[in-house]
Amino acid sequence: MPAFWAAARAQLGEFRRDPGTLLMLVTAPFFAVILLSVTEHGGRPDLAPYALLAPAVMTSIGMAVMEAGETIFRDRSTGVLEALLTTPAPLAAVLSGRIAAITAVSLLGIAECWLVGALGFGIVVAVEHPLVFAATLLATAAGTAATGVVMAAVFVIGRNVRSFQNSLTFPLYLLGGAMVPVALLPAGFEAASRLFFLSWATDLLRDSLAPGPVAAFGPRLAAVLGLAAATFAAGFWIAHRLVRRVRRTGTVGFA
Amino acid sequence: MNAIAVLRQTMWSGWTDLRIVYTPTTWAFGWMVRVLCQVVFYSMLGTLLGDPERTRYLLVGAAVFIAVNETMMASASTTWERMSGTLSLLAAAPAGMVTVLAARSWFWVATGTLSSSIALLALAPVFGLGLGPGESAAAAALVFATALANYPVGLCCGSLSLRFHRLRNVFSNLTLLTMTAVGGVMVPVAFWPGWIQWFAAAFPAVHGLEAVRLAIGGGAADAVFARLGLAFATAAAWLALAAASLWWFQRDARRTGSIDFGD
Amino acid sequence: MAPGPGRGDAEAMSITGFDAPAVDVRGRSRDFATARGGPPRRALDDFGLTVAAGEVHGLLGPNGAGKTTLCKILSTVLLPTAGTARVHGLDVVADAKRVRPLLGIVFGGERGLYARMTAAQNLRFWAALYGHRRREGRRRAAELLERVGLGPRADEPVETFSRGMKQRLHLARGLVGDPRVLVLDEPTVGMDPVSAHEFRGLVEDLRAEGRAVLLTTHDMAEAEALCDRVSFIDGGRLLRCEDPRVLGELLSRHERVRASGVPEALAERIAALPGVERVRSTGPGAVLVETGRGGAALPVLRTLVEAGVSDVSTAPPTLEEVYLHLIGERGMAVRP
User: Above 50 in pLDDT, residue C92?
Assistant: First the structure.
């Protein structure tokens, strides 16, 4: 546990030192303006919650992909990662700490987007089912952090994987149903997207903002949590393999 | 100075930079996948609204702006001269650094045109936009013109990135998103208040995109060329601004000592 | 089109006087603003220096002494806060455009080359920036690559080169504009001994061609071997400008002897030998003997060996120690 908090604090310090790492939080309001202008111009004020929720979700998952991968990559290139592996703290604790901090900071995007709606367009989105919203948000944060762990682990293991980092955001937005529910995707894509926790999470978050009753809340939340847990497990398994490889080869150098 | 020789050599060095950014594999399976997903993401907004006309509008806007997106990467690549440690050597060379910095990122115009045209032509049938061979060719040519016209905007961001290196991605992203929001990409410019419309008109890409929309919408040739004229006129102003800003960076760096040997 | 910028500016130089020294620095100082509005840090302080054409002038000093600042000012990358610097009579501030073609810059390390381009492509790029046309650029690139021994590797990307090869390419790059003055800023840093030796041979050739070379280094042996004159600088000030033989003399005068397994009584005997300045204990039975006179190390060695001590080595003094002696002799304090 001390390792977890120390890693989280280190990550927060990194945000302070290098404001460029907070790029996603800077771009979130712009995405809110872009998406909200589309629904407003289309004469569909009922879709405003979609347009304000989407950039917040995109910010969270985007930061998990970009920042989580980046921090661990930086640790490796500066040799910090090797030093880290010599300490008694499990790598999983350090990874989780860093990524928890990233995810927590990324949730600020929700407030930003809500403010864009209220101040820029005079649209105040009410949360109709606060408990559903809060529970789903927590589960979503867990899933996002899990995605971050997988990304970080994969970026460290693979030499060329990092070139794909920048390319992952929009495919994940699409498969996660960030703006458009995955039910509107072609059948094959929809099936694939159901393996990604975010597609369940965004549907549930949108439902929690709508006045109608939320159908099958329990099973759907369970789907989010179950997939998030599976993602965590995958991330830690890869991280564990990385540690074993380092112990064997004596270096965290490129594959 | 023999500007032509400098340009030719700079373009070659830029080309070798491109090979650091992409291998054929990462371009095809990384970047192009993202490009297609991005354009589908925005086009699907039309599906969500249940309006095929709007879907096509969003498709064209999102696809053409891929070219704009890539040329904005000139912002980051302008600073790569620091990465190779050649900035101080350029500062000390008789030809100076302005020409080299201005021309080194040209490859984004080429790759931007390519990925943007592929996205537009490949996704048009998917979202019910019929494009004949003539319209397709005109669209690709105008996408190139748009990328070219937007390049100086990327350079202006690049000159800022040279000064504030850690914010190099921030400048280009904010400029790109501003253009995307108000430039007639997702919703017509007329949606916004008058002062924002004037502001949007300052960006060459906004006129370039309008030219593409006119050309594939069966608009008159002179209307297309008028838009193109506006795109290049605004681009010329941005180019002057970029050159002044780069020159100013070079002069200022000498005074403050912000360029080190090895930078 | 003028054949090469070096010659193209000959006319300009004749106006200001071709006989002017290659490099002439007077009362040059440079302040840097420090963070949080503190008093400015002075990297160069009232600095004066002259280098004649065909002279290899060494600029010797520890890290942070102000060597690189001077090089940056001369190569027109940095403006001075006060004073003047001239290259062949041309002011580096007022006439920067005419100074640039006269200068070649080479700095140590692996940076400053385009890694993905081949050696020949790199040189052609810089040839264009120094005003050469295409054909001339190709010719110069090929010629220089031969000269630095990279001819067979001309068409290979620089990223595949060893450090020594990159450094040779750097030198070729510095020569591409046919400069009258070469500024070499710690060019042999990190070079292996063989490469460094070859590099020195190239510098000798440059002198023979009548080019002025300003070489910064903190390697005293290199300065002694290469330079016609050596300037010692520290804290941005010129301490002394000397014949390099003075340096050689300093090096041998302050030679040090290291030994282990030395009983206390033996150490005391050594301390009493003529020319021995100090005997320091560096561990149980280990001593470091500092001498202050040429040849004083020899009796120390003899005494040690005769007493049966076999783990003995000698070493030249470090730059810092030579500086301490230099400063001590002039009573000048080094500023922090």
Answer: yes
Asked if B254 reaches chain C (Cβ–Cβ under 8 Å), the answer is yes
List the strands of the sheet with C82-87, edge to edge. C41-51, C23-32, C82-87, C90-91
| Pairwise pLDDT comparison (B120 vs A255), residue with the higher score | B120
Task: Pick B93's closest partner by Cβ from C32, C116, C130.
Answer: C130
Cβ burial, residue C274 (10 Å; 0-12/13-18/19+): exposed
Please name the member of B30, B49, B178 whose beta carbon is closest to the beta carbon of A42.
B49
- pLDDT value of position C162: 86
Tokens of A188: 């094959």
Query: Among candidates A109, A127, A98, A123, which has minimal Cα distance to A214?
Result: A127
Chain-wide mean pLDDT for chain A?
87
Cα angle at C299 between C294 and C305, to 5 degrees?
Answer: 140
Q: Rounded to whole angstroms, how far apart are CA atoms C252 and C153?
A: 41
| Nearest CA distance, C128 vs chain B (angstrom) | 5
Does residue C321 belong to any structural domain of this protein?
no
**A217 close to A141: Cβ distance less than 8 angstroms:** no
A41 and B191 in contact by Cβ < 8 A?
Answer: yes
Residues C233, C259 within the same domain: no
Helix (H) / strand (E) containing C28: strand C23-32
Work out the number of other CB atoms within 10 angstroms of the CB of residue B243: 18
Domain that holds residue C165: 5-243
Residue B95 distance to chain A (closest CA, Å)? 33
Give the domain extent around A110.
Answer: 2-249
pLDDT at C248 over 60: yes
Q: Return the CATH number at C182.
A: 3.40.50.300
ipTM given for this complex: 0.93
C72 is written with which tokens? 């940056």
